[in-house]
Amino acid sequence: MKFAVIVFPGSNCDLDMYHAIQDELEEEVSYVWHDETSLEGFDAILLPGGFSYGDYLRSGAIAKFSPIMKAVKEAANVGKPILGVCNGFQVLLEAGLLPGAMRRNEKLTFICKQVGLKVKNQKTMFTNSYGEGETITIPVAHGDGNYYCDEQTLDRLKKNNQVVFTYSENINGSIEDIAGITNEQGNVLGMMPHPERAVDILLGSADGLKLFQSIVKHWRKQHAITT
Ligand SMILES: NC(=O)CC[C@H](N)C(=O)O
Q: Which residues, by range, are in coiled-coil regions (predicted)?
């Protein structure tokens, strides 16, 4: 299985993402610069964290115009797994691939710490290796993680089981403790916590690795690869 890590000017978690896939998951991975226009040959697309375009205007608001985003949308439309972490989540929101918006953290401070997350939906291609209702530990590092959407959208998210992760304790003001959501089809996941920084017990937690393993498990099942 081949993963792409999209690199925007200002991305800073691209290396962590690359390391997680290559060294911990042991799958193929390549960087793809934001100026590229094709994602042909990739099976899964990862949008890493960081400060794309210096977070000017709004986090992710400028990155959505990067040439590669057209290919990301096409990959999303054909059902490939797309994962946006932190700034990657913000880009997916701004690009309209996920509903809602991200606001400044309620207390207007940057939050960097390990947090508890509840797996609210373990039937997705990103969470099939977790237990139902499992609580996991993954670090966050953001200033704009206060997820918001209108009531209608929230109802739809809940009805379709699109809320995948919630915070055990609300750290940033996010509506209904939301930490991660998918699109309606379930193949685009955005989450503020960083699973790529939780892939080895030396990092304080290895709970993030199961997320990447879930993507591989799903892909292998789809392609009938049993080994
Ligand atoms: N780690 C990150 O991706 C930071 C995300 C974003 N730029 C913020 O501070 O909200």
A: none
